[in-house]
Amino acid sequence: MEALSRMLSAVVNHGLMASFSVGDPQRGPISVSHLLFVDDTLIFCDAEQDHLRALKALLRCFEATSGLRVNFDKSKLVPVGTFSTTQQLVSTLGCKVTSLLMTYLGLSLGAASQALSIWGTIIGKIVKIDSVEEIVFVERRPASMAVRIEKLYRDFLWSGMRDEFKFHLVSWDQVYRPILSGGLEIKNLRTFNQALLGK
């Protein structure tokens, strides 16, 4: 997949396809044209016939050089916005078309970041405290989600992975405190999220 990544970057660098920029312009934005996930690839480009022709040619070249096959029947074009040329773009690429809202890798794409359904899915995947801190602090989320995640924290701390009830032996405010002050230095989710949003 490293070869495909380099090929996509070269096509973008030669202006045959467009990428999009994310990040702070003052710090130097990051240009994103594709993302690779194990055996999935997301490719971002403008809804232009020439760009999709270039992409199709690149994928055919990749097939010829790598011996791998791109399954266009399983591939999907996901337009962001409304385009009168969607069917032409689909026929150029030879794939199916779908739209946002959709689920990818178990997460909803295209939903508002405040939608409870998104965070409910994420909470359902949380199994240990470390994973909570890694995935939760992306965007502003409903306050009720912080309450549910903190309940998972507490239940895990006192019961581990078992479902049996255990009394909470110390107040949660004590658990938030630094280790030197007798706490466990577990982050307060609401405070931490507000701090990240203020950056």
Automatic annotation (TrEMBL):
Domain Reverse transcriptase, chain residue ranges per copy: 1-109
* UniProt cross-references to PROSITE patterns, sorted A to Z: RT_POL
Q: Which InterPro entries match?
A: Rev_trsase/Diguanyl_cyclase (IPR043128), RT_dom (IPR000477)
TM ranges are none
Q: Which Pfam families match?
A: RVT_1 (PF00078)
Q: Note the Gene3D superfamilies from the entry.
A: 3.30.70.270
Q: What is this protein called?
A: Reverse transcriptase domain-containing protein
